[in-house]
Amino acid sequence: MTGSQRRDQLIEVGRSLFAERGYEATSIEEIAQRALVSKPVVYEHFGGKEGLYAVVVDREMADLLQRITSSLSAHRSRERVEQVTLAFLTYIEECTDGFRILVRDSPADARSGTYSSLLNDATTQVEHLLASDFSRRGMETEFAGLYAQALVGMVSVTAQWWLDERQPPKEIVAAHLVNLCWNGLMHLEKKPQLEAERSREDPEGESAASAG
């Protein structure tokens, strides 16, 4: 193998082992053994296990973020929600090992990006889109960040659940997520309140409603 071919091979071997066993449980010895090389070869290319892990995570982060960004950069509002949800689920389907690595805890001193930082990037993009939409609808834009956190969190947590379930198919999962997201967004109250707050402000109205 050439140097670049050997490097790519070690990245794929490391990716597979980190997904299968986790960072802490994976050793340089195992990586070298599975790649059929000596340990010094791994050190030569990456300086150690942390260096290899950082390269693996950076590649996965770049891949997933590119998919999310592309899905948000075109289409109308509802299509954006659909496309970003499908992009997330498709990444899990096509890059299962990569997603398992991203959602696991990174080593404490890892210099590479983390899954939470990737979600923060995605949330920032969604916040800008929501703020623009809220402004057009005469709603307060100061809460766009809160709604962005809720939407990205909902898709992310559901995606992690689907990682192991794989049922129903991703298109159905995406359709139900979009149903909840979109229909919720389209019927937002401009000044939402908890029911307890409504009751305190209008006790007579509550009594009349109960009587009716």
From TrEMBL:
GO biological process: negative regulation of DNA-templated transcription
InterPro entries registered for this protein in UniProt: DesT_TetR_C, DNA-bd_HTH_TetR-type_CS, Homeodomain-like_sf, HTH-type_Tx_Regulator, HTH_TetR, Tet_transcr_reg_TetR-rel_C_sf
Keywords for this protein: DNA-binding, Transcription, Transcription regulation
Region (Disordered): 193-212
Gene3D superfamilies, per the entry: Tetracycline Repressor, domain 2
Keyword Transcription regulation part of the UniProt annotation: yes
One annotated GO molecular function: DNA binding
Annotated HTH tetR-type domain residues: 4-64
DNA-binding region, residue intervals: 27-46
UniProt keyword Transcription regulation, yes or no: yes
Biased composition (Basic and acidic residues): 193-202
The protein's name: TetR/AcrR family transcriptional regulator
